[in-house]
Design a protein that fits this description.
- The protein contains eight helices and no strands.
- The protein is mainly α and 196 residues long.
- Helix 7 packs across helix 8.
- The longest helix has 49 residues.
- The protein is elongated and about 90 Å long.
Amino acid sequence: MGVRVQALTELVEDGQDELRCDAAMGRDERFEEMVARQARFMFQVAFGLLRNRQDAEDAVQEAFLKLYRGEAWLRMENEKGFLARTVWRVALDHLPKAVEQMSDVAEMQLEASGLSGLASLSPEQSAVDEDERAMLRRLIDGLPEELRQPLVLSSVEEMTSREVAEAMGIPEGTVRTRVMRARTELRRRFVAMKEG
């Protein structure tokens, strides 16, 4: 009888080990799929805050590592909002280390929309477009951080007010108000630049 109990115990333990192994493989596959689906989005969120490609890549890598080590991502209800908030918090830690060299926001917009290789524009139109993008970048960069961050996330990164609110940890109404104030301020500065 003792041999049978021991054999049954070993069989149950082997079965539990197999289940744990299967669960771990399923977890890894789910995580890989999530990374493939959301890596670009998370990069855009981090870049919107840090405005530096290398720092944004580092923040995304660190965020994915933290997620993988934990279990919270398995229970998330709103995937985009949860991931945006996670990478936003990691990027905030990188903010003091961010280098002053900022990548072009307009370039990120073009890459995200797949228009970076348009060669059909005339040289004159290309020069005008480049000047307008440079002016827009300077105007956006000149905004106070509390206005710039929600504007970049909502307009450039095309996140909803709810996703921006979750990422920044502020109420959704505050996001809408700040985006509206940022756009008003950009218009004011743009008109002042054109007149001046």
